[in-house]
Amino acid sequence: MTERIRPFLKWAGGKFKLCDWINQYLPPGPRLIEPFVGAAAVFLNSSFDHYVLNDCNPDLINLYRLLQREGISFIDYCQSFFIPKNNTSKRYYKLRQQFNETHDTYEKAALFLYLNRHGFNGLCRYNSSGGFNVPMGKYLKPYFPYSEMLAFHQKAQRAVFTCVDFSKTMREAEKHDVIYCDPPYYPLSDSASFTRYHRYDFSHEKQVLLAQLCKELQQQGIRTVVSNHAIPPTRKLYKNANKLVFCEVMRSISANGSQRTLVKELLALY
Ligand SMILES: C[S@@+](CC[C@H](N)C(=O)[O-])C[C@H]1O[C@@H](n2cnc3c(N)ncnc32)[C@H](O)[C@@H]1O
């Protein structure tokens, strides 16, 4: 069995634990398209010749593009922020402000990684004016993901990164492409909503549009696999799929990670 590659970012809804299960349902094809790539666990652990990796978060895609292009020199630069001096609240809030104010994409990308590993629970949250506003976490020695970044850089040579709405990415798919969709989860309850990833809410209407697009693309010979919680509203949402498959996984169900429970996941196969 080949060893799994860990994503180098902490990310809400990350699919690392589920990637073997998901992989067995991805049909073969020349190219995998991920309209909601997040921390990219499925990309890292699948074997397509080509990838289109999209996310609406521009900070995430900026980081991926720089890592893809620059490799080791950029990894070393990112590592220079992971020093004991920067693991104090005074420095954290100074660097967070620097992240929010800089127009230098290289510096912004490295600071995004610094914030991901030093911020509370790896959360990614912005205020209404787009400022990153996650408070500092309490980590004795935040881990620097050197080997994970190197693995990402190597595999990313097969990928094209885009930063648009998922519907645009899906509409640009071509016959025989395979699509894996991991949209923000349908909330388990109103208070458990995790759907505000980057200034945009992922509304019920968007979940419905996604299910409609999957069906339309299927009729054009494009096969899609979609992840979500297995709950009555999502079973209804994906009732037009060819098949639904299920598994159980331990997940944090509160934004601060304090509540963990066994939740049922579904994959809708189109
Ligand atoms: C559940 S996460 C994906 C997790 C990912 N599969 C992983 O393993 O880490 C959902 C992603 O969708 C992105 N997203 C939210 N709304 C979007 C939209 N309208 N278009 C594209 N991406 C969107 C978020 O920024 C987030 O990264």
Features:
Adenine-specific Methyltransferase, domain 2; seven-stranded mixed beta sheet; alpha/beta; Rossmann fold; 270 residues; globular; 10 helices; 2 domains; 16% strand; binds S-adenosylmethionine
What is the topology?
Blueprint: H1 19-23, E1 31-34, H2 41-44, E2 50-54, H3 58-70, H4 72-79, H5 89-101, H6 105-118, H7 146-155, E3 159-162, H8 166-171, E4 178-181, H9 204-218, E5 223-229, H10 232-237, E6 243-252, E7 260-269
Parallel strand pairs: 1-2, 1-4, 2-3, 4-5
Antiparallel strand pairs: 5-7, 6-7
The protein binds S-adenosylmethionine.
The site of S-adenosylmethionine (SAM) has 21 residues, from helix 2.
Describe this protein's structure.
This protein is an alpha/beta fold and 270 residues long. It has two domains: 149 residues, 3-Layer(aba) Sandwich (Rossmann fold); 82 residues, Adenine-specific Methyltransferase, Domain 2 (Adenine-specific Methyltransferase, domain 2), CATH 1.10.1020.10. It is built from ten helices and seven strands. The chain has a seven-stranded mixed beta sheet with strand order 3-2-1-4-5-7-6, sandwiched between helices. Helix 3 packs across helix 6 and helix 3 packs across helix 7. The longest helix is centred in the last third of the chain and has 15 residues. The protein is globular and about 55 Å long. About 2% of the residues have low confidence. S-adenosylmethionine (SAM) binds next to helix 2.
